[in-house]
Amino acid sequence: MKILAINFGGIGDEIFFLPTLISLKKEFPEAKITLALEPRSKSVKDLTDVIDDMILVDIKGKNKYFELLKLVVKSWFGGFDIVVSSGGNKFISILLALTGIKKRYGYDTGKLSRILLTSAIPLNKNQYACDMYHDLVSTITQHKTSLPEINVEPQEKLPNTVLVHPGVSKMSVQKGMTKTVSAEVWAEVVKLLLEKGKNVILAGGPDDEEVIEKIRVFLSNINPSPEFVNSQSSLTNSPLFLRGELLDFYGKTKSLKDLAVLIGKAEKFLCSDSAPLHVGVAMKTRTFAIFGPTDDKKLIPQSELVTSIKANDNCPIKPCLWEHRQTTCENLDCLKITAEEIAEIVYQG
Description:
This protein has 2 domains: 2-137, Glycogen Phosphorylase B (Rossmann fold, 3-Layer(aba) Sandwich); 161-348, Glycogen Phosphorylase B (Rossmann fold, 3-Layer(aba) Sandwich), CATH 3.40.50.2000. Helices cover 34% and strands 15% of the residues. The chain has helices at residues 11-27, 64-76, 91-99, 111-116, 129-134, 170-174, 183-195, 209-218, 226-230, 256-265, 275-283, 296-299, 339-348; strands spanning 2-6, 32-37, 53-56, 82-85, 103-107, 119-121, 161-165, 199-202, 246-248, 268-272, 286-290, 306-309. The longest helix has 17 residues, at 11-27. The radius of gyration is 21 Å and the shape is globular. The N and C termini lie far apart (46 Å). Residues 226-239 have low confidence and may be disordered.
């Protein structure tokens, strides 16, 4: 059997989609699964072996419809038995019909979808995103994978450590989606955690260079640990030895899998509402995520391992991002969380 799965979005969306693919693999162990996704999210394959092949579709580029046409043509010659697609756009059912794949599964977006799809699944957005995606295969498999699972072994914990990953995707910043506190607040949080005796590891990816540089300026009077500076040890082979100091690990994780290993080594993980949060969930590390305009109930599971940190702002339309608007407001009362509040929650949690 050959299965085509289609899920457009950022790396976080692809991690949310993993339980759906895993359940399909459990139902059809010999199946070959091809995932059609955006180029920006292709690194998800580093985390899993359930994806056998990928089709990159640049729907954010200038040639969106040509890219979708190429996907349709590739599906004609792919020999697929089943296609499963996320997305609440009414066009999705037409796209799936154009593929010519016999069994088609997507969300119910109206009468046309019920005609064109083998099974049109009710779209319930008021639940954890992994569950929302997993509904797509509810009529195909009895298996239920509730959380993302990735191919990274459990790590030996570094004692008394808090890994801090302050960034969000550059695309969200460019689109005016402010989802985290300022660099100044992040720097103050790090200082407070250090004062409380925590070993703090600062990490980030290429999108986070600007915020990391600002944090470095604020923390310029704190020297990185000599053990870190001189260490040639591999993240996957040798532990780092901490001495209650700040370890600047920015740029040291070369892949999403490297980041997953580092998150696995930390006793606690503090991050924004971004893709690393979902890696933390998959690694089962005690995770704290700062939430502002987005809905934490849809983005984190109900688990004692994950805590959302939110402002007591009493905003009448919170959460608003994606629910009522596509950009954040100018006031940002939902992100007026003090460094003291954040550090205390992490320290006590």
